Structure formats: structure tokens, C-alpha cells
Amino acid sequence: MLNRFVFNKGTTRIGTFMLLIAWILFMAILTYIFSKWLSYSMNPNMNVDTTISRSGERVIILKVNRYNHYVVSGKINKADVSFLIDTGATSVSVPGHIAKKIGLKRGNPIRVLTASGEANAYSTNIDSLFIGDIELLDVRATIVPADNSDNVLLGMSALKRFSFTQEDGILTLKLTGK
Fold first, then answer.
1. What is the DSSP string of the chain?
2. Domain of 33?
3. Could you point out which of 33, 46, 70, 164 has its C-alpha 20 to 30 Å from the C-alpha of 61?
């Protein structure tokens, strides 16, 4: 004998509802996984470890991101920021919206030359800058109000305190103690 299943409207609605919930959960999980992958590909250095070299120097090793830039998470005056390593920048360059959010005070107005051309900026000073567990004190910086990026350029006013080498997508920063 053949068993026949009889579906009523209530059963069909519950099945459709459960299928909809399953699809929503599936899409939410995929979105979460993709956003984590995308974050990592933009900043593979979110959690930086500091090691000690044989000569006693504190060392940070950074990986290049998918755009061949070195991006690293850090802190300015205890506020989380994302740094873009820029050896061509004279000083640490903080976009205006980030400077406002973290409470940096504008100093004297100055003109700066950026990749986009000349811009108005303000001198400032960063009391404390962290990369990994290395803290740099009293770092000269500029605030660039017209810069809408989400990264702080980590320029030579901070990088001069390190010796650094770059090879095969790895940037090694060694604190020199200056």
C-alpha cells in the first residue's frame, strides 16, 4: 500500500517559514565569513606580536596586504586606529575625522604635500602611539582635515625610531631605542 501524505496549509506555511529561516541563517553566516576574510585581506596585522631579537632589540613583523601595503592595527592616545606604513611621509598624518574622534588638538596651521596635492593641515603632537606592545612617546604629527581615509599614515616621525627591512612581503621593524 502506498502511504499518502496529506499536506494542509498550516504544514506548508511552517515548511516555507523554516526554509526561509534556513536561507537567512546561511546568508548571515556567509556574510560573516566574507567580512572576516575581507578585513584580514585589508589588514593582516590586526594582532601584532612583539618579539626580542638575539641582540635584545624589540621586533615587529608585518605582512603585506592584498594591495601590497603594510597596514597594522595600533593605538593613538589609547584609541584604536589602523596605521598605513608610509616611509614617504615626513610625519604621522592623521585624517581630520580620526583626529576629532580621538581628541587630538590642532596646533599651528601648515601646508603639506600629499599624494593628492597640497593640503591645509595642522601640527599636533601624539602623547602615546602603540604598535603591538611597543609604545612611542611624544610623536610629531599632522592633522589633515581634507583626508577622509580610515588609515593614519605612519610616517618617518615615528618610523625613525625603528630600523626596518622589507623582503618577500614581510616588513621587519626593529626598535632602535632612539
1. --------HHHHHHHHHHHHHHHHHHHHHHHHHHHHHHHHHH-TTSSPPEEE-TTS-EEEEEE--TTS--EEEEEETTEEEEEEE-TT-SSEEEEHHHHHHHTPPP-SEEEEEETTEEEEEEEEEEEEEEETTEEEEEEEEEEETT---S-EEE-HHHHTTEEEEEETTEEEEEE---
2. 8-42
3. 33
| Domain shared by 21 and 84, yes or no | no
Q: 92 in a domain, yes or no?
A: yes
Pair (16, 94) in one structural domain: no
CB atoms within 10 A of CB 79: 13
72: how many CB neighbours lie within 10 A of its CB? Answer: 25
CA distance 152 to 71: 9
Domain of 121: which CATH number? 2.40.70.10
Q: 152, exposed or middle or buried, with CB in 10 Å at 0-12, 13-18, 19+?
A: buried
- pTM value is 0.78
pLDDT digits (tens, 9 = 90+) for 25-83: 988 888 777 776 666 668 889 888 888 888 888 999 999 999 999 999 999 999 999 99
Residue type, 94: V
Of 163, 134, 154, which Cα lies nearest the Cα of 91?
A: 154
